[in-house]
Amino acid sequence: MTMSALYMLNAEFETAKAILAPRVHPRRWQAIHVSVHDRVATEANFDAHVVACEYATFLQLQTEQLSYFCQTSRSIAEDVCMTVAEFEVVMSGRQMPRDVATELATTWLGQFGEGTVFLVNGNVSTSIARHKYFDHLNRSLFFTDREAGVLAVSPARCGIFWSAENS
Length: 167
Prior knowledge:
By secondary structure, the chain is of the alpha+beta class.
């Protein structure tokens, strides 16, 4: 796949993440992948799944299962991000204080404006209890056996909020 965009790490988000980092156990940072990249596009038309595949390729992630990812609303994406930050996927144990998880998720989502498409790695229903998200999200980007998260793609910015763990 040839790249049709240039990606640059978003310094503003990285600064915000660095401020939160001391409040999170180092082991949690080993499993959670959170970043935002500014995107300079060269294509004429925006296709969310094509851009998601391109972004995953840029991050050197697996792309074969991206076609199975589901588009979701910003509010569901926010709930998934907070859950992924706060709880580990394998055992569902709390790994990050709720206020820090909320701040990290809110800051990440705040980087994305109108027109952003949010993709999750499974079927997510608003009726599913928070700890049950992990039972339904099983498409892999990192070659691990338990993953959950959100990819955000837009013409000007892309991001990942992801937990990848092995049981």
